Amino acid sequence: MQNRTLFIFSALLLVICACICGCTGTVGTNNTPAPTAAVTETPAAATLTPTATATAAAVTNATGNGITIVDDTGTSVYVPAGVERIVSLAPSITELYFAMTDENSTTKLVGRTSYDNYPEEALLVDSIGGMTTGASIESIISKDPDLIMSTTMVDMNMINQLRANGYPVLVFEIDKLEDIFENIRVMGKVLNEESNAESLITKINGEISEIEARPHETPLPRTMYAVAADPMYVAGSETYLDELITLAGGINCYGDMPGYGIVTTESIIERQPEVIIVIKGPMDSGLNMREQILNNKELANVPAVKTGRVYTVDDDIVSRPGPRVGQALEILYSCISENAQ
User: Fold this and answer.
1) What are phi and psi of 47, to 5 degrees?
2) What is the CATH number of domain 46-209?
3) 14-38+215-340 with 46-209: one CATH topology?
């Protein structure tokens, strides 16, 4: 039971699965980014474009000595001017950091979690341990950080201890596409990378618009995204994955279920998904979710099983809410809109 609980919690974190596609029906092995296009006005993309008013973390005060930011835990965090040494406590934050910094940047990432495997430069940064287990206050403090950046998925007890020791910790939500945009804006401000941050937002919006403009299947295929198989745990509405399914041309079978939840075999049969998307077993457990679904006799008459439209995707790319949104959409589009291409 303890292992199962860890399994489900890991799926909710959306970032700690070491998923490499390689079995039959697997997509996402090509790491080439989706084509970048100019931002165009499409209804869905327009609703996702960040506005001047912060919707998540907000800068409330700026002085010559630093800025105060209300982060996504509602905490006012003072970030001193001229921060240099950064520690990231989440893979998505690490990816965003490298996506908006370059050789001219004045900051340096000095610590990251053991799950931060992209880009390659991240592997050159010292690891402070796991995101939910293994990381210690001592290992983080040993990096002498000026700023620590985390997400709401990380243990708040550790966050509070770091804050009690005088370290500024910014905590970001990563539940929706809008969160990614807002996190980029705030990170750009505290890292003195505002221009690069805006360029990254433009790039991501361009990738979204380009894929939205492609043809989609008619009618839109009913799609199920499973992040765990025992029990079956799927993405519902109000999630990052639900947004990606919609943008890629699908209809979430569980769009009436908020968040992530356990579903039964009977429920899957009733929902009749035409496309099922799964991830590789967590942390190289060897679990083949695709084969488990295809070999389940009770699911034999589910459309996705009958037609073989059960796909294994690279969870690090698709489920990690960071700068690789375009790649994630490219992968999902190839699954969901296969017959429209």
Assistant:
1) -75, -15
2) 3.40.50.1980
3) yes
In contact, 263 and 315? CB cutoff 8 Å: no
What torsion, rounded to 10 degrees, do the Cα atoms 69, 70, 76, 79 define?
-20
Give the chain's length.
Answer: 341
Q: What's the burial of 222, exposed, middle or buried (CB within 10 Å: 0-12/13-18/19+)? A: buried
Three-state DSSP class for 237? strand
Q: What is the pTM of this model?
A: 0.81
Instruction: Give the tens place of pLDDT for each residue, 177-218.
Output: 999 999 999 999 999 999 999 999 999 999 999 999 999 999
| Contact predicate 17/117, CB 8 Å | no
Could you give the CA distance from residue 105 to residue 84 in angstroms, rounded to a whole number?
A: 9
CA-derived radius of gyration, the chain = 20
Query: CA-CA distances (angstroms) from residue 223 to 47, 67, 258, 339?
Result: 22, 44, 15, 14
Looking at domain 14-38+215-340, which CATH architecture does it have?
Answer: 3-Layer(aba) Sandwich (3.40)
Q: What is the per-residue pLDDT across 34-86, written as a single tens digit (0 to 9) for each?
A: 332 222 222 233 333 333 333 345 555 655 679 999 999 999 999 999 999 99
Collapsed DSSP state (helix, strand, coil) of residue 108: strand
Q: pLDDT at position 22, please? A: 30
Give the pLDDT confidence score for residue 121 in this predicted structure.
97
Cα separation, 82 vs 140, whole angstroms: 20
DSSP-derived secondary structure for 164-189: HTT--EEEE--SSHHHHHHHHHHHHH
